[in-house]
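Session log. Operator J.P. requested a structure for one protein chain; no other inputs attached. Running the standard single-chain path with token output.
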Amino acid sequence: MKLWRRPFRLAFDAVDRTLARVSRTRRVLVHVRTTMHAGILEPVMRALARDARVQVRYIGERAGSEAEIEASIGRRLEWLPPDRAAWTRIDLFVSADPWGPPVLRRCRRRLNFFHGVAGKYDLDNPSALPIGFEEYDRVAFINADRMRRYLANGIVSPAAAVLVGFPKADALVHGDYDGPAIRRELGLDAERRTAIYAPTWSPASSLHLAGEDIVQSLVDAGWNVIVRPHARSFDPDPQYSGGIDWRSRLGAVERPGRVVVATGADASPLLAASDLMVTDHSTIGFEFCLVNRPLIVFDAPDLPRVARINPERVALLRSAARVVDRAAALGAAADEEAADPMRLAPARQAVARSLFHDPGGATARALAVAYELLRLDPLPAASSQPVVERPRPALVTTAR
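Structure written below.
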């Protein structure tokens, strides 16, 4: 900042601090780059939105994404146009991803929630990445291991680091979802065994190598299949989708009653509805360990290099899974795992304990951090209960 501007900036900040103290409403701005980010933040933001003292508004990454994001979480949102964001007074900015935040010149506090645990793209140790965590007043970690790594490398200060857990997993571990009812909602045979295929995004992922063949192998073995791609696979940017229109291509594999492509913001209901998962390497694979059901990793040999995955995370996921390297062998492998579903149960439990801090209580801890930054006393527990039925997020939002 030029020296002559500094006195004006200080005076401007003083006025904003005064306005924040006297205002009866705290302004929260939520940055959602994709539907996935909306799902990560939804348990905390939904609770904040019930507080009459708090105004929650959203800002997206690209124009035209508002309707899809709203559908993916099952409720209407209040949006702040990007051209107005820079000079709007914000009491708390919240994001699930440190990349590409909007320019905010009147923002008092910033809070980041991690959106994954898979150790991809150097995020277990991003010392060389231009992320800018120093801009955040609090960084909410999902597990103690990553928090220790960031503290040890000076990426986050001790004052900013807080161990929260994974709020969106709370409903899953509390058993809030009815698996058969979700299968019926998806149009699947509720009594048939159901597998979820959940590949990560990358031109080196299993989706690109053998996606349709993986689905077909499971169908041939008698399974329902829920196909749950990563949200970035639908991004037209070739770095995410490889230049493939996965909306159309995956739409072609759907079969009434047997195969459905599900694209809601939060995959937790889909995990509850699934007896087995097939993935390559993604946070959703680790999340499935929370329900402790059979897990298969489809080997995508070049994925760890291309996605810059921490080798420790690759080994950890595979320690709790069966590894298959051919689509033709997948159906038989799924049948064998289903016949002995507890074979790797202790390993899955160990993975869940190591990567998700105290699951079930993360939303309450996250809210405590948000209220601290907002300089508000949390609502009493009875006051924070929803006054209407909890919104059901859309399970399928992809436009055909």
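Operator note: The chain is about 35% helix and 15% strand.
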